[in-house]
Each structure stands twice: as C-alpha cells, then as structure tokens.
C-alpha cells in the first residue's frame, strides 16, 4: 500500500514543471490503459497519454487560488495533524474512512468544495444541506470537528474546514488501500449552506444509468470518470432502505430486480429482513467480496458488478449501458486495477477542485458546523 503523499517538497518542485508525480507506478505507463481502452473517445481528458502523472495544467484541476502547501508558512503542521488524526480515528473506527470520503463528495457536489455541507442550521432558521434528504445518512461530522479542534489548538483561525475535509478524504482513501493523490489547499469556507440545491444534484442510490451519468456530467465528469468515482462504493456500509425495494418489490413487480444475481438476493435479504419498513438489523457492508474474503478499496467492485452483485441500483446500472466498457476494463485483473486506481485518483483531483472559494471570499470557520458570525 502506498503511504501518504510526501508533503510539500516533491509537489512544490514538480509544480514548476506542471506535472506532479506522486509515485503512482512511475514505470507503468499509460500503455496499460491504452491497450485496455476499448476506444479513445472520452479518454485522457486531462492528460491521458501520461496517466502516471498528475497534470494541473487544466483549470478544472487547478483552480485559481489553490496551491500546494498553502499553510506551509501559516500552519506548517496542518497536513500532518490532519493525517495523524484521521489515522487515529480510523484505528478507533474503520468506518470513518468511507464516511469522510462520502462527506467530501457531498460537499463538493453542492456549490463546490466549500465545507457548506458541514454547517448546522443557522440560528435564524436557515436550513442546511445536511438536513436535505440525500444527506440524512451522512456521517463523519464529529470526525471533522475532532480534526479541526486539533488544528485550531495549533493554528487558531487559520486552516479552513474545506481544506481539512479535502485532506481527510484523501488520507482516508490511503488508509483503506486506495491510491494517493496530491491535494491542493487554500480553500475557504462558505458562509452559507445550500439546502435547496441538494435535491436532484446528488446522484441517487437508486438512479438509472442515465440519471447517474447526467448528475456527474453536470459537474463536469466524463462517463469514464463517473465509473471510476463510483469505485468508492467498494468500501463503506449502506443502509437497508437504500436497496430494500430491489430485493423484495422492484418497481412494483413484487419480485426482485432481475439484474441482481439470485445468490446475491439471498445475501442481501439476510442482512435486510422483509418485515415492515424497518432499516434491517445492520447496515450492509458495502465491501464487495472476492473469493469469500473481505477486501478493501479496489476494482473488485467492478468484477462484482459484472456478476450482477451490485448492491445499489446505481452501481448495477453501470453495466446497463455503454459504461459497461469501463466496468470491464477496471475488472480485467491486475492491469485493470492499475488503470482504475489512476483514473480514480485523477477523478478525485478533479472533484477536489470543484468551485472552491479562495482568496478573500468566504471565511475560515472555527467550528466546522458554525459560521464565524454564529459563534459569538
Ligand atoms: C428512487 O426512490 C425514490 C424514493 O423511494 C423514488 O421516489 C424514486 O422514484 C426512485 N427513482 C427511481 C429512478 O426509481
Ligand atoms: C434527519 C434529518 O435531517 N431529516 C430531514 C431530512 O430532509 C428532509 C427533507 O428532505 C426533512 O424532512 C427531514 O426532517
């Protein structure tokens, strides 16, 4: 497993030559990807012929105001405090990793990566994103507050919650065996949350193929990047209510979704009992299984989809249209795994760059759930 990204120096040097290589298989090349790519139509949007390096030359991956090591002078330990705290939280509860990745995704998808998802309702009754339907099952808020407290103790009022969340998501992925990637910093926190924008903009767990692609395309992601990002569903847990209809009464048929493998229906029913509309005994582990052995983050998710073992409808639907070709690429053994990890890392870099607030816009919160003007 790759260690956390060496901070600062490597990337700062590399920035001057635009490419920031983070040692993701420097010897392996885009050639594995190229060979495996069924076609090239949406391939390599951000540097496909050199997929072993990160290119920040494109505005969509390096917005104005974000830099490497934004806190090098003002809070040199910031990134280390985030990563060590994430590690500590993860050892206490491994579920925190998937929770933080998902929280970051929800943050970035609504008004950019501005920590807007972390705000509580305002005293004046303003409603927060975290109260909106798709956000009800979000977790990880306490973890972010715990990290923030440690950062505040060292550098009061300096490091934004938006940056903490971006760094914590990357550090979480590394802990579960995912690829590392460079995280630019310099984000500021929004002074509002966007409850009304959540509906329709967060891709639904039961979305069709077309709906999922559309939701990601609205945020600038290609089909390939969309398939790669959904690989985050190789970790985490999912509540019964998000897939119950698929195993008992799909689309009012009184029968399971016939895209699910029959054995899988049995496994899902074992977790998610048929009685009433309860939420089942326990959330189903989102971990997909390979030869009966639990595995962490990785492309085994795609192999499971090819066998009709997607837990959420949105997952399984990736095999229902032309995106199946990327599912097949990623599922194709060791080389597929490498292509997936690179694609995923690139897509995370792009996600991390969605519409940040920078410069003097927004604010730096003290507590991540409260606007600065609400603290007093
Ligand atoms: C997804 O589930 C919601 C809530 O149960 C339902 O209203 C919606 O129609 C479903 N969407 C699809 C595409 O089936
Ligand atoms: C727990 C929670 O925040 N529930 C709210 C989720 O959002 C819906 C509206 O989409 C509210 O009605 C719930 O109260």
Automatic annotation (TrEMBL):
Cofactor: heme b; Ca(2+)
Cofactor binding, note field: Binds 1 heme b (iron(II)-protoporphyrin IX) group per subunit. Binds 2 calcium ions per subunit.
UniProt subcellular location: Secreted
Comp. bias (Acidic residues): 37-49
Site (Transition state stabilizer): 102
Keyword Heme attributed: yes
Short name of any one Pfam family annotated for the protein: peroxidase
E.C. code: 1.11.1.7
Principal EC category: oxidoreductase
GO BP annotations listed: hydrogen peroxide catabolic process; response to oxidative stress
Major place of residence: secreted
GO cellular component, one term: extracellular region
Domain named Plant heme peroxidase family profile: residues: 65-372
Binding site for substrate: 203
Disulfide bridges in this chain: 75-155, 108-113, 161-368, 240-272
UniProt binding sites for Ca(2+): 107, 112, 114, 116, 129
Function: Removal of H(2)O(2), oxidation of toxic reductants, biosynthesis and degradation of lignin, suberization, auxin catabolism, response to environmental stresses such as wounding, pathogen attack and oxidative stress. These functions might be dependent on each isozyme/isoform in each plant tissue.
Family as reported in the entry's similarity comment: Belongs to the peroxidase family. Ascorbate peroxidase subfamily. Belongs to the peroxidase family. Classical plant (class III) peroxidase subfamily.
Protein known as: Peroxidase
Organism per entry: Paspalum notatum var. saurae
